[in-house]
């Protein structure tokens, strides 16, 4: 079966509709998912940017505030440097002012004055510093002296506030003398915790961290809402130091923080004076997770909603597709399978809605209905064809073809069951005569009645068929014995004999039956049929209304028949045929007025064969056509030869029914008349009465043509056939020959005499002459003369003799008769 290629989606080629629909649903969901994802990613990126802006802004504002504080310190130190006590390095005055200043400065942990050797002159602290405390090792001190400018120091943990170590960053300003030389250094310790406070004021989200490092990357201060980190003093993460060396003074970046979390960083470098090394690197960071937590949440919610929607859609699609698509399609598939399996009454059972499935259901149902109708029509046509092929239309019995099938089946069944069966051939006796005399319609009715009787007489599993014409065949199953078959055959004969009324006339018919047995007589059906046929032939031959079981003897006689036909085929060529002539005597004067030509055959193999035996075979094999032509030609030639020799006789020739039906008969006779030169009036064509009853209208036409040739026409064996007297007057017949059977008992049987008399009267009335056949005795001759029969033939007068004897017989007879006649006159 052809499979659509469907190379596009081989994965789904064999998937169910439900799966395909679900796949479609899922595929259609992808854009939705894509859009949702797109918006969420966008939101995420926005959040990220927002977070970066936030950290940058935070770092900028923290730096700004810090710078402002440092500037405050710078201004303060500048103002102090102008103060007289400071310039004079008056310890008490300095302490007082510094003390006062320190109290007012929230970001400074200490404010102090050191001389140029680094020795502390005074501090703003309440408690005095230890004597050995010096600042000459501090970077801010040395830088201030070196540069003469406001300088920053390095990170320290305040030693001033001993109770609580505090991260500090020192700034220093040299106090310059009149020559501009540094005379002392003012310094302030900046509390790095100030960053924490500024940082807190930014309102950054949880997890935000501020990280301060120096130019070496050492963490100076690290603070979050959780407090100051213990990572202070450690080295900054190398990956995060890029901002220290990069070109940008401030900016944002994303990376892994020191806590291992991904963070958004805002950074800024701080310098006291342009071109100087930055004294502080500020970094503020927010964990990305915190920055994008909303979008992540939104993403997860969307994903959850999408998943729930997908699950709901999945189940809804399953339910809806199952109800509206899958179930109808399954019903269509099932209906299709049923149709495929031969159930053409199968229908979808779906409502014919206006959608595609409704239309498909309607189309399918209509297609199945039309298929059903077509198949019915075809099967009706087939069964009609089968009926015509295997059944006889007249009797509705099976025909010969079906017989052959049934014989095969019966044979196989018998072989399997080790049984046997009988085949009987039946033939209605004289059906042809009945058919022709009563008409075809009556003949058909007869056959139907007989067929019905045979069916009724047989068992149900026996088989009866019509072979054609008046022939029937019967299979009798499970019969091996002749005795068992005889009972059934007898029943069939009786069924045939039962009186029947057709067209108001009561008919009595008989049948002949031939029977052969399987496997006794034949082991194949063809031989069995032949055997039954042979048996039937012999039943007919034996006088009809009887049956004959097949035996080897019959085959032998049949074989003889066939051999005889073969021999007859060569009889003409081999000059084995000859004619004898029987004189015909005129009762009026006792003279021989004519002869009847009678065919004789002497075969070198078989010897002399009587015409009653070989003429039927010649008719059967249609050899009678050439033989009959030879007879007419020989007889006519003989007649002409005798006539020339002074022996003028009429010539009677037998014409068989087969010759009469031959379309060449007229031409043949005409040609022979012309060729031989016989006077046509002297040629008498004898036809048996049975020739006339078969298609009388056509026979009349043939006879009229023969009469037109001026031949005489005689009806042979008159009174033995079934010819209707009403027809007789229409036949252009000139002679009626009274059959030998009536002549035989003419003197003893009053009915035979009455028949003979009737024939003579009929002939007289119809202007015909009569000839009596088979006259053997004088008393028969006397009666025939008495009843007025015109001519006689018979052994009493002369047997059929060879042609050479005829002239002498005629001379003797006609001379004698002349002498007798003259004597009787005298
Ligand atoms: N018992 C008895 N028989 C007598 C007597 N007189 C004559 N017959 C026989 O009666 C038969 C008369 O011929 P059929 O009735 O035409 O009957 C003929 C005819 O029907 C047929 N037949 C003979 N020759 C021909 C022929 O050339 N063509 C055709 N178509 N049929 C022929 O064969 C039949 C028999 O012919 P045959 O044996 O020659 O028999 C002849 C003849 O020998 C008699 O007194 N007693």
UniProtKB/TrEMBL annotation:
GO molecular function annotation: cyclic-guanylate-specific phosphodiesterase activity
Which residues does the UniProt record annotate as the domain HAMP?
323-376
Q: Which InterPro entries match?
A: Biofilm_reg_signaling, dCache_1, EAL_dom, EAL_sf, GGDEF_dom, HAMP_dom, Nucleotide_cyclase, Rev_trsase/Diguanyl_cyclase
- What subcellular compartments does it reside in? Cell membrane
This entry carries the following GO cellular component terms, namely: plasma membrane
Single GO biological process annotation from the record: cellular response to nitric oxide
User: Predominant location of this chain?
Assistant: membrane
Q: Which reaction does it catalyse?
A: 3',3'-c-di-GMP + H2O = 5'-phosphoguanylyl(3'->5')guanosine + H(+)
User: Which Pfam families does this one have?
Assistant: dCache_1 (PF02743), EAL (PF00563), GGDEF (PF00990), HAMP (PF00672)
Domain EAL residue range list: 561-814
* Domain spans labelled GGDEF: 419-552
Which of UniProt's keywords are assigned here?
Cell membrane, Membrane, Transmembrane, Transmembrane helix
What are the TM regions of this chain, as residue ranges?
21-41, 298-321
Write down the membrane topology: Multi-pass membrane protein
- Transmembrane helix among the record's keywords? yes
Q: What is this protein called?
A: GGDEF domain-containing protein
Tell me what organism the protein belongs to. Geomonas limicola
């Amino acid at each position: 079966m052809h499979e659509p290629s469907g190379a596009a989606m081989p994965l789904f080629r064999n998937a169910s509709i439900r799966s395909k629909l679900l796949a479609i649903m899922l595929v259609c969901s992808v854009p939705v998912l894509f859009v949702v994802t797109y918006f969420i990613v966008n939101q995420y990126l926005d959040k990220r940017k927002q977070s970066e802006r936030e950290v940058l802004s935070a770092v900028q504002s923290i730096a700004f505030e810090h710078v402002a504080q440092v500037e405050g310190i710078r201004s303060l130190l500048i103002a102090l440097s102008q103060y007289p006590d400071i310039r004079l390095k008056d310890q008490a005055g300095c302490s007082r002012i510094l003390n006062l200043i320190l109290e007012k400065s929230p970001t400074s942990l200490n404010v102090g004055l050191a001389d140029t050797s680094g020795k502390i002159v005074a501090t703003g602290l309440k408690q005095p510093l230890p004597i050995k405390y010096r600042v000459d090792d501090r970077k801010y001190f040395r830088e201030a002296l070196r540069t003469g400018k406001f300088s920053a120091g390095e990170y320290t943990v305040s030693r001033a506030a001993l109770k609580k170590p505090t991260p500090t960053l020192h700034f220093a300003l040299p106090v310059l003398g009149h020559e501009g030389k540094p005379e002392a250094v003012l310094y302030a310790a900046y509390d790095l915790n100030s960053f924490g406070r500024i940082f807190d004021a930014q309102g950054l989200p949880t997890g935000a961290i501020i990280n301060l490092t120096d130019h070496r990357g050492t963490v100076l201060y690290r603070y979050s809402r959780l407090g100051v980190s213990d990572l202070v003093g450690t080295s900054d993460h190398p990956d995060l130091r890029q901002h220290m060396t990069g070109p940008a003074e401030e900016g944002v970046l994303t990376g892994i923080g020191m806590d291992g979390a991904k963070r958004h960083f805002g950074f800024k470098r701080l310098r006291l004076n342009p071109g100087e090394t930055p004294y502080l690197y500020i970094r503020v960071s927010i964990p990305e997770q915190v920055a994008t937590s909303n979008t992540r949440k939104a993403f997860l919610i969307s994903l959850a909603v999408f998943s729930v929607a997908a699950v709901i859609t999945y189940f809804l699609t399953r339910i809806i597709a199952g109800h509206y698509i899958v179930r109808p399609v399954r019903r269509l598939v099932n209906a299709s399978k049923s149709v495929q399996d031969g159930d053409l009454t199968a229908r979808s059972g779906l409502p014919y809605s206006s959608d595609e499935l409704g239309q498909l259901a309607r189309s399918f149902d209509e297609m199945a209905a039309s298929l059903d109708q077509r198949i019915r029509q075809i099967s009706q046509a087939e069964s009609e064809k089968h009926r015509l092929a295997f059944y006889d239309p007249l009797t509705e019995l099976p025909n010969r073809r079906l017989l052959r099938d049934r014989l095969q089946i019966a044979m196989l069944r018998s072989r399997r069951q080790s049984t046997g069966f009988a085949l009987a051939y039946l033939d209605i006796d004289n059906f042809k005569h009945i058919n022709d005399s009563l008409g075809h319609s009556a003949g058909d009715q007869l056959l139907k009645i007989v067929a019905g009787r045979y069916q009724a007489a047989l068992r149900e599993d026996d088989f009866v068929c019509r072979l054609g014409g008046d022939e029937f065949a019967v299979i009798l199953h499970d019969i091996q014995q002749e005795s068992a078959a005889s009972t059934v055959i007898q029943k069939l004969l009786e069924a045939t004999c039962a009186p029947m009324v057709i067209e108001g006339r009561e008919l009595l018919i008989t049948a002949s039956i031939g029977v052969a047995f399987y496997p006794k007589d034949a082991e194949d059906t063809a031989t069995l049929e032949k055997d039954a046929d042979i048996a039937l032939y012999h039943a007919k031959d034996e006088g009809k209304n009887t049956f004959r079981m097949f035996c080897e003897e019959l085959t032998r006689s049949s074989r003889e028949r066939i051999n005889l036909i073969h021999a007859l085929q060569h009889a003409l060529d081999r000059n084995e045929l000859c004619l004898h002539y029987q004189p015909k005597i005129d009762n009026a004067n006792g003279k021989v007025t004519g002869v009847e030509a009678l065919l004789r055959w002497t075969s070198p193999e078989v010897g002399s064969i009587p015409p009653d035996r070989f003429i039927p075979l010649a008719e059967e094999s249609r050899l009678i056509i050439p033989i009959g032509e030879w007879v007419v030609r020989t007889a006519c030639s003989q007649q002409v030869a005798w006539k020339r020799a002074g022996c003028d006789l009429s010539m009677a020739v037998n014409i068989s029914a087969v010759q009469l039906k031959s379309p060449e008969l007229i031409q043949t006779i005409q040609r022979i008349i012309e060729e031989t030169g016989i006077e046509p009036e002297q040629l008498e064509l004898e036809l048996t009465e049975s020739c006339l009853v078969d298609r009388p209208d056509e026979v009349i036409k043939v006879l009229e043509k023969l009469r037109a040739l001026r031949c005489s026409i005689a009806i042979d064996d008159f009174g033995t056939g079934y010819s209707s007297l009403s027809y007789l007057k229409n036949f252009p017949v000139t002679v009626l020959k009274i059959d030998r059977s009536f002549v035989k008992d003419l003197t003893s049987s009053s009915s035979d005499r009455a028949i003979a008399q009737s024939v003579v009267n009929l002939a007289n009335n119809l202007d015909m002459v009569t000839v009596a056949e088979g006259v053997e005795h004088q008393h028969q001759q006397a009666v025939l003369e008495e009843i007025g029969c015109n001519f006689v033939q018979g052994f009493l007068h002369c047997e059929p003799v060879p042609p050479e004897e005829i002239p002498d017989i005629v001379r003797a007879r006609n001379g004698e008769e002349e002498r007798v006649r003259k004597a009787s006159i005298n």
